[in-house]
Write a structure and sequence with these properties.
Blueprint (H helix, E strand, L loop, with lengths): L1 H7 L2 H4 L4 H5 L6 H19 L1 H18 L7 H11 L6 E8 L6 E8 L2 E7 L2 H16 L2
Antiparallel strand pairs: 1-2, 2-3
Length: about 140
């Protein structure tokens, strides 16, 4: 979000970097833009105080904050809330298989709610559970 806001206010163009770094595109890197915005906010606060900093934050971040009035939910949370909202038991996650070498495993996880099943595969159990929940949510959506 910081990088997006920094791009929106044109902060990258105001950065002074070495010519080689400029040619490498450092002014467009998300981490550089985010760090620069944090530094600019700190400088604004230290120089002008809370009031100007608050005005800037509300103006620069306002659209992003109102666009996302409801925080995003990960698939597991959304599936659990879907089930609970219908008085159903909690989703049940089962590791169906684990394949591959120890340095690069592939977990296959299934999730079941009210007789409906979804599955997901990923390099970690947690990510496979998220994928399975997303799969099931896609099947449950009207």
């Amino acid at each position: 979000m910081l990088a997006t806001v920094a791009e929106g206010i044109g902060l990258g163009a105001a950065l002074d970097v070495a010519p080689g770094e400029a040619r490498a595109g450092v002014k467009r890197q998300a981490t550089v833009l985010a760090d620069a915005l944090e530094a600019a906010l700190g400088a604004l606060y230290l120089d002008g105080g809370l009031a100007p900093a608050r005005i800037f934050v509300r103006r620069a971040f306002g659209a992003a904050m109102t666009a996302q009035a409801v925080p995003p939910k990960d698939a597991k949370t959304a599936l659990q809330e879907w089930a609970q909202g219908r008085g159903l038991p909690l989703p049940e996650y089962i590791i169906a298989s684990r394949e591959g070498p120890s340095h690069a495993p592939a977990f296959v996880v299934t999730v079941t709610v009210a007789g409906a099943t979804g599955s997901g595969t990923a390099g970690s159990k947690r990510a496979a559970e998220q994928a399975a929940a997303a799969d099931l949510l896609g099947k449950l959506a009207p």
